[in-house]
Amino acid sequence: MDNFKDRLLSLFPNKTIASISTEIGMSHVGLSKVFSKQTLPKAETLLKINDITGCDLKWLMTGEGEPFRENSNKNQGAPLTPKNLQESMAAYDVFGRPVSIDEFVFIPRYDVKAAAGHGCYNEDDKPVFTMAFRRYWIENYLRADPKDLSVIAVKGDSMEGVLNDGDNILVNHAKKAPGDGLYVLRMGENLIVKRTQLMPDNMLWVTSANEAYEPFGIDISKPIANIEVVGKVEWFGRKI
User: Strand 91-92 to strand 149-155: parallel, antiparallel, or no bridges (unpaired)?
Assistant: First the structure.
């Protein structure tokens, strides 16, 4: 089972999501968000599921192994707590020194390209992996909610010198109001990343770094069905 939703539902056969959420101490909306974002609930909730069903925690969180260990007895050994659950999920740096996972947030990286050029059709909306960012930087420098962020790639040469082909960009989806800066725009079925500037008379001027691409304006006072601000670019990463 590739995702947490399938694993959880298998532990509660013939029960609705609403009844499962009540049993494990979550709201129906909260559990639905966990499912849609393909994340995990808090440690306390994972422990409650383990306490109710006796399932293996590693399997519950990752899908690795079996749902129930052979000859397992949830009442044997030391009781599970949020503290020793966190210890079981310990991480280490390349020198073997312990690293606190709580210092980081894990932002989904989508197999989607925002074209710095003529646009790129996007079919896949499921994250292929996550990228770790330090929580303090996200919350105190970007002043962003990690749940509003995603990472996608840049394709094309229209922003060459600013954003190059293959760069990873961190997009803040909470910043959907047109403004000055680097923004990802959806035009029809294409995503593009451009520099935008608010102009008089409700015009949004869209420009490229590469002079081969002509700038154009969008009248934001008029509803345009096929144009949408996806979010603002907050950071980029590049292989040199």
Answer: unpaired
Q: Which H or E element spans position 21?
A: helix 17-23
Handedness of CA 80, 81, 83, 86 (dihedral sign): positive
- How many C-beta atoms lie closer than 10 Å to residue 149's C-beta? 22
What pTM was estimated for this model as a whole? 0.62
4-89: CATH topology: 434 Repressor (Amino-terminal Domain) (1.10.260)
Taking residue 167's Cβ as centre, other Cβ atoms within 10 Å add up to 20
Q: Do domains 4-89 and 103-237 have the same CATH topology?
A: no
Task: Render pLDDT for 196-207 as a digit per residue (tens, 0 to 9).
Answer: 999 988 899 999
CATH superfamily for domain 103-237: Umud Fragment, subunit A (2.10.109.10)
Beta strands in 63-212 (DSSP E): 91-92, 98-99, 104-115, 120-121, 127-134, 149-155, 168-172, 181-187, 190-199, 203-207
Delimit the domains of the chain by residue range: 4-89, 103-237
Please report where in the chains the tokens 């999501």 appear, as a residue.
17
Q: What angle do CA 233, 126, 57 make, to 5 degrees?
A: 115
